[in-house]
Amino acid sequence: MEAKIANGLLVSPRIDSEKIARRIGTGGSVQFSRRFREQDRLQVLVSAQLQPKTRNSNRHKTVSLEVSCSYKNFPASLLESGGFQAPLDEARILKNKSQEIGPYLSGRCIYLVGMMGSGKTTVGKVLSQVLGYSFFDSDTLVEQDAEGTSVAEIFKLYGEGFFRDKETEVLRKLSLMHRLVVSTGGGAVVRPINWKYMQKGISVWLDVPLEDLARRIAAVGTGSRPLLHHDSGDAYTKTLTRLSTLMEERSDAYANANARVSLEDIAAKLGHRDVSNLTPTAIAIEALEQIEGFLKEENGDFGL
């Protein structure tokens, strides 16, 4: 029943800044990302300006350093200038953030809610690995309980009400456990009883722009999406139209989540124009940031 934990996160190799500086020559500039070897230290961003002195200075160079150690305060000017292309060491940031807030979770489960195609399963696996939690997908558990019948087939054979009953039972059982990350179905939020079970843990809404969701779903097809499969029209248009209707019905319910992760906000923070450029790790980092904010509001600032 339990899904596999996500694969290990990759850490970018260390960059030899001295070697780069030697290759620059007598002038110019270089911007690079460097990760310290010392344990438990975050990667820092180093912006180096190499300027030649006068001819009598034996061509010595002066180096000015600009250092930033905060995910939230990453200098957007460097990204916007186009001079800095390498990403932050997201895996290290994610690890440090999980170590900061992990003890304050007290083993509570994390429930990811959001529209179909919002990345709940992918991000959930990243979170489960870094927190040392187990991961479950509620749709998968319903399918297993139905002897392998897919969600789309369950809707077709038995109707949405039957599926929702099974979904509620799955959430009830999961709510009795600890140290889980759970990816819920897009419509799980519409039943108040489901919120009763999820409130035993911490709920996180992955909020993705509808246009991006429609592109994702249309690209892979709507056959596995029972609420979309029978609509007419081209894949993108029918998907966007249906998603818009569903969001109108569910937006208030999604807003009940303890924390909201806006992919638009993450993209703006990191200087991306398109949320499709965001990695699951970057989204997981923001999820932990928002969970941290919820914990502080719930229990007061615990010294982070």
TrEMBL record:
<keyword id="KW-0150">Chloroplast</keyword>
<dbReference type="Pfam" id="PF01202">
    <property type="entry name" value="SKI"/>
</dbReference>
<comment type="similarity">
    <text>Belongs to the shikimate kinase family.</text>
</comment>
<keyword id="KW-0418">Kinase</keyword>
<dbReference type="GO" id="GO:0008652">
    <property type="term" value="P:amino acid biosynthetic process"/>
</dbReference>
<keyword id="KW-0934">Plastid</keyword>
<dbReference type="InterPro" id="IPR031322">
    <property type="entry name" value="Shikimate/glucono_kinase"/>
</dbReference>
<keyword id="KW-0057">Aromatic amino acid biosynthesis</keyword>
<keyword id="KW-0067">ATP-binding</keyword>
<dbReference type="GO" id="GO:0046872">
    <property type="term" value="F:metal ion binding"/>
</dbReference>
<dbReference type="GO" id="GO:0009423">
    <property type="term" value="P:chorismate biosynthetic process"/>
</dbReference>
<dbReference type="GO" id="GO:0019632">
    <property type="term" value="P:shikimate metabolic process"/>
</dbReference>
<dbReference type="InterPro" id="IPR023000">
    <property type="entry name" value="Shikimate_kinase_CS"/>
</dbReference>
<keyword id="KW-0028">Amino-acid biosynthesis</keyword>
<protein>
    <recommendedName>
        <fullName>shikimate kinase</fullName>
        <ecNumber>2.7.1.71</ecNumber>
    </recommendedName>
</protein>
<comment type="function">
    <text>Catalyzes the specific phosphorylation of the 3-hydroxyl group of shikimic acid using ATP as a cosubstrate.</text>
</comment>
<dbReference type="InterPro" id="IPR027417">
    <property type="entry name" value="P-loop_NTPase"/>
</dbReference>
<dbReference type="GO" id="GO:0009073">
    <property type="term" value="P:aromatic amino acid family biosynthetic process"/>
</dbReference>
<dbReference type="GO" id="GO:0004765">
    <property type="term" value="F:shikimate kinase activity"/>
</dbReference>
<dbReference type="InterPro" id="IPR000623">
    <property type="entry name" value="Shikimate_kinase/TSH1"/>
</dbReference>
<dbReference type="GO" id="GO:0009507">
    <property type="term" value="C:chloroplast"/>
</dbReference>
<keyword id="KW-0547">Nucleotide-binding</keyword>
<dbReference type="GO" id="GO:0005524">
    <property type="term" value="F:ATP binding"/>
</dbReference>
<comment type="pathway">
    <text>Metabolic intermediate biosynthesis; chorismate biosynthesis; chorismate from D-erythrose 4-phosphate and phosphoenolpyruvate: step 5/7.</text>
</comment>
<keyword id="KW-0460">Magnesium</keyword>
<keyword id="KW-0809">Transit peptide</keyword>
<keyword id="KW-0479">Metal-binding</keyword>
<dbReference type="GO" id="GO:0005829">
    <property type="term" value="C:cytosol"/>
</dbReference>
<keyword id="KW-0808">Transferase</keyword>
